[in-house]
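Q&A log
Question type: sequence-to-structure
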Amino acid sequence: MSLDKATVAKVANLARIKVEEKDLDHLADELNNILGWIEQLGEVDTDDVEPMTSVADMQMRWRADQVTDGGYAGEVVVNAPSGEDGFFSVPKVIE
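Response status: OK
Response body:
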């Protein structure tokens, strides 16, 4: 894949990046180099490599899914201008 000057100008426009006309050729060369490196990555054999989310082998810590605080909704809404059954009462905003 190769980018030409017009494509680079279009991408810059879509990204809302102002690029001077004189810089388009140089930018196209740089982007083509980057795309070349990406194409090289596609040549690497990764069939025996496990997918990973980090370079360090880590285990996520899990905790029990249990409530450790709460259960006092009445105390929370006691100073509310309007409350009902432990919930804040607000005016309807969507018809």
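Response note: The longest strand covers residues 83-84.
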